[in-house]
Write a structure and sequence with these properties.
The protein starts with a strand and ends with a strand. The chain is globular, with a radius of gyration of 14 Å. It is α+β, with helices and mostly antiparallel strands. Helices cover about 25% and strands about 25% of the residues. A hairpin with a 4-residue loop joins strand 2 and strand 3. It has a four-stranded antiparallel beta sheet with strand order 1-2-3-4.
């Protein structure tokens, strides 16, 4: 069984997070590409305390999650817009 933990992302890890995003963009079925997400998007999420790093048991970066009420999906016709969206 593998353990992992969530930690608020920091600008100091920006280059590592961007590399992870580029690798994730290569996964089959990914909606990400070389332009999305980019450094500006990651910085915006960090500045709004909405980006978290997922670290493995060896403290290696294995994932990211953006979660928060930042209005990113307000245009969708979901019944409860006050819900936090996560990607």
């Amino acid at each position: 069984m593998s353990n992992f933990s969530f930690h608020m992302a920091s600008k100091e890890m920006l280059s590592d997070m961007l590399r992870l995003c580029r690798r994730a963009a290569l996964a089959p079925g990914s909606h990400w590409n070389e332009e999305y997400p980019n450094e500006d998007i990651l910085r915006w999420d960090i500045n709004h305390c909405a980006l978290y790093q997922i670290l493995g048991s060896d403290d290696q970066l294995i994932g990211l999650i953006s979660i928060g009420q930042i209005g990113e999906l307000d245009m969708l016709p979901w019944p409860d817009l006050s819900s936090s969206a996560a990607e």
